[in-house]
Write a sequence for this structure.
């Protein structure tokens, strides 16, 4: 029995020793993995792998660099992984490390390949000068992880020394359409501008087509809505030319602010006209409405054009580049070129601030006058409705202007609040000027849907009349 036990123990020990000899040693975790395109004893020649003995050259040996670009960084060891990268749906493209060119390759100690490149230089002495500068804005880099690159020595045109070569997979660029901010700025915001534009055009067309609405206040509302519509178009152009055309962006920026300034001047003119009418004892709306509109037009357009020219001149001559970039949209990764600076915007918006203060005075003074009036004629009754329209328009436009001022702050939430306010401003103007006024709805149904409308509910009733006579509505239509 003792002999049998010894024999079995000897057999077991022999089997364990034989098995242990076939077990590979555990891999060292401190080895750096480096991807090589060809075999260890091969180099790349004209796009094909060839043995070193056939080229009179030497095999490629990895040289590591640190994050700052210093070469010959020592590592504990490395392991070569042979083969080109599998890019699947991505494309492969080669990168050549040639002195004096716009591309450089550096193998980092963690095994990643760093590709340095110049953004604005094609090569030559200009590239050398840019490489010698520290922290140059033209220098960019991108890191390729394991499996997305391979490196090797490449020989071309009988070169015996060779150059450093890398075959990399095209970097994965995330789609901008999956970014919520891009969706809001490039899709939702233009759609809101389109809705507001349709509302402004509808108000302008209704007040221009219906003869009963072409009085002085109606013409002012028409021109005001045209200014707001032009501003929406200019703002939409700004959205799509933000990083492509600085000149077009500057032109759209100036048109946006000029149209907004003109709209506030027209609102100020309407407030002044209503305030002056309530103060006058003898009011005749039949006379000189066309001439009055010409006078108000001269006031509005001369002030608008003059302030616009002054603002553009101040921007081009006095505004610095820092101010120009500061006024640009701070919520985007880059600031658009061509944006009007703080000085130009101050020239535009200072008159708007003064018109807001003057309109507040017109509103308070007119309210006091209406409270003291004991009797109302048809003209005052009509002007009272015009005053209500002016008050609501003033509130909506003033709030929209305040949100525009807040949109220049770095907080994205305030910019989104401006987007919401701009989206609501157009429908609110349509509701104030058309939908909330029985007289306008009556005239629309009478002109468009009197007896021919397919919808019975849209036809006016036989006994439905406006709130004042036709002779009052027909005044000042010439």
């Amino acid at each position: 029995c003792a002999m049998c036990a010894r024999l079995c123990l000897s057999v077991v020990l022999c089997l364990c020793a034989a098995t242990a000899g076939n077990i590979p040693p555990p891999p060292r975790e401190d080895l750096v993995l480096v991807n090589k395109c060809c075999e260890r004893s091969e180099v790349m020649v004209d796009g094909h792998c060839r043995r070193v003995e056939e080229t009179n050259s030497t095999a490629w040996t990895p040289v590591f660099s640190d994050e700052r670009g210093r070469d010959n960084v020592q590592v504990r060891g490395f392991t070569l992984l042979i083969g080109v990268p599998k890019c699947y749906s991505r494309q492969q493209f080669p990168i050549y490390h040639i002195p004096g060119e716009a591309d450089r390759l550096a193998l980092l100690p963690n095994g990643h390949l760093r590709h340095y490149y110049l953004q604005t230089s094609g090569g030559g002495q200009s590239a050398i000068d840019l490489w010698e500068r520290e922290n140059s804005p033209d220098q960019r880099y991108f890191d390729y992880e394991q499996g997305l690159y391979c490196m090797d020595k490449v020989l071309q045109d009988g070169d015996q020394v060779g150059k450093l070569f890398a075959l990399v997979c095209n970097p994965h660029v995330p789609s901008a359409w999956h970014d919520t901010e891009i969706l809001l700025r490039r899709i939702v915001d233009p759609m809101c501008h389109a809705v507001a534009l349709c509302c402004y055009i509808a108000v302008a067309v209704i007040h221009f087509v219906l003869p009963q609405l072409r009085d002085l206040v109606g013409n002012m509302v028409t021109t005001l809505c045209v200014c707001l519509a032009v501003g929406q178009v200019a703002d939409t152009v700004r959205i799509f030319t933000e990083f492509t055309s600085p000149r077009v962006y500057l032109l759209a920026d100036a048109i946006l602010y000029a149209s907004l300034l003109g709209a506030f001047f027209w609102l100020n003119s309407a407030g002044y006209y209503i305030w002056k009418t309530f103060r006058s004892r003898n009011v005749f709306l039949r006379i000189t409405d066309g001439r009055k509109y010409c006078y108000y037009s001269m006031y509005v357009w001369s002030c608008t054009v003059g302030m616009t020219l002054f603002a553009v001149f101040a921007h081009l001559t006095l505004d610095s580049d820092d101010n120009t970039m500061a006024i640009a949209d701070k919520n985007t990764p880059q600031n658009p070129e061509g944006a009007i600076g703080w000085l130009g915007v101050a020239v535009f918006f200072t008159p708007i601030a003064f018109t807001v203060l003057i309109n507040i005075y017109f509103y308070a003074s007119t309210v006091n006058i209406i409270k003291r009036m004991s009797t109302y004629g048809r003209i005052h009754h009509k002007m009272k409705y015009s005053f209500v329209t002016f008050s609501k328009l003033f509130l909506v436009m003033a709030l929209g202007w305040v949100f525009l001022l807040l949109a220049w702050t770095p907080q994205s939430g305030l910019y989104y609040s401006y987007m919401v306010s701009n989206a609501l401003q157009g429908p609110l103007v349509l509701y104030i000027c058309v939908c909330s006024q029985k007289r306008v709805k009556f005239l629309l149904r009478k002109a468009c849907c009197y007896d021919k409308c397919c919808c019975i509910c849209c036809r006016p009733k036989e006994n439905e009349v406006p709130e004042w006579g036709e002779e009052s509505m027909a005044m000042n239509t010439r």
